[in-house]
Amino acid sequence: MPIRQLSETMINQIAAGEVIERPASVVKELVENALDAGASRVEIVTAGGGLSLIRVTDDGSGIPERELALAIARHCTSKLSDDIHDIRSLGFRGEALPSIGSVARLSIRSRTAAGDSAAEISIEGGRVSAVKPAAANRGTTVEVRDLFFATPARLKFMKGERAESSTTSDVVKRIAIAFPAVRFTLAGSDRSTLELPATGDTPEGRLARVAQVMGADFPANAIAIDALRDGVHLAGHVSIPSYTRANALQQYAYVNGRPVRDKLIAGAIRGAFADVLPRDRHAVTVLFLSLDPATVDVNVHPAKADVRFRDPGLVRGLIVGAIREALAGAGIRAAPTSAAGMMAAFRPGAAPYSHPGPANGHRSYEAAFRASGFSGFDPSRSPQRPLDMGEARPARGGFADNDQAAFDTGPMASADARAGIAEPAEALLGMVLGAARAQVHENYIVAQTRDSLIIVDQHAAHERLVYEALKNALHSRAVPSQMLLLPEIVDLPEEDAERLAMHSETLARFGLGLERFGPGAVAIRETPSMLGETNVQQLVRDLADEIADNDTVETLKERLDRIAATMACHGSVRSGRLLKAEEMNALLRQMEATPGSGTCNHGRPTYIELKLADIERLFGRR
Fold first, then answer.
1. Using an 8 Å Cβ cutoff, are 288 and 254 in contact?
2. What average pLDDT does the segment 477-492 reach?
3. What's 565-594 look like in SS3?
4. Which of 10, 385, 531, 594 is the 20 to 30 A CA-CA neighbour of 392?
């Protein structure tokens, strides 16, 4: 078959396959156009999940009548200068409108502030009509009907109306978070309406918009992020470790105001929360990255959801460091929603504890706590594999097993007997975790503050304390290494071997000694002692893959941290150990001084707080 030039309609339909994947893609492109036009109000109406109708109306600057024909022509845009690296708008490719018009019935009606009247142009399956006069207020209305009528094969890949509507709603919410000064409304054929009133472009207004999208309880469970490194600014909010979700759908990331779904950012968030969340739980985050447009490529894909950073290691390090610093600086905090789970469990008529299963559908205590944001502790997910830890021991000075002799002083007095002990100092009641009052079931410390009751899981709490001490010791000096009897030769692609050699100094600090061994190979002479017998070949290949993706060596660091977590689990105060009052108070004070002590290494809560007002409600006093 001879080479021939494709028709303009065919070219646009091919482009539509990349840009317009589903109704939500249309809404995204049209809303971004409205925002680029300076709109302060954006109204979206859909029918049939967006397949029958999508109408987006804004009060932006509008399109002059003479430019309407250009607006639906391929690669025509008003948003891009001669420098492709200086992109400061959401749209810039000039593909969205002609792509939509090639697979649907599209009409654009627009009026500028200086115009006496509006004008309208239509395009149906790639066929353009003449521009004609119309009646409209200032701004633009874009109407899309019968999406994919010109490419019916695409309709077979669409989901149900409800699913498409849900995806569209998520797209609108994701964009709305970045533009708190704009009012958004989304109305569907099921008569449900999403209304997001403008909250203002101030710190308080931005947080109020986040609360509109993510729920009113998020601000109370969030920590502010504000960090700057080498010209890259990171701002936003992340949830405290005890406020989590079962998936990552509520992790919102923005680069220069553009909503993105970037694996580097997602990986950095996972890394930052790695030792405070269970593996099957996800933090709730809203992060805004601001940097020079020349240092980030947003032209990776026509949908513009993927980005590439010139210095990915800098961006990842900034995100991980800023989140960890914020978590440490926030002190010890329990999720306010934990009280709801406890209240549900204590209410008269609550179902007894049971493991939910196919034959057991009632709401258990476990379900109540899961609903409050906590995840149940599953020992099968904790890093409990047998490890050769050599002579490594937890640092002395805490409650580690080799410091437990003072604890073995015989059984404590009963709770009734302890009730007669003199009142604790007033200062203790003013502390975050208050004063220890009793130990129940040989595992739970009951403490009192001025306005709440605190229940602490002593094993989980001390596990976190030992873990943080081990991590500090681990990363404050070079990790001890063990010399291999025979060097391990690992064959790799030449580029991977070169990357590993470039990071050899950093790897040596973590106990991994390597050097080049001819073309396409490295020789491993030392491995971290903490790893014991390990699969050196797999470890080195994993490191090479990570350096290729993110230009970091976090894999090795995370493996060492997991071993430290296992050591902490075995070296902490055990369930069933009786503690004296001063020992319990010492544990509470150490928790208050340790970052991240609101959860253990496996992500389960170390303590639960029940306010006095909630207790009074349980007894009908309020």
1. yes
2. 86
3. HHHHHHCCCCCCCCCCHHHHHHHHHHHHHC
4. 594
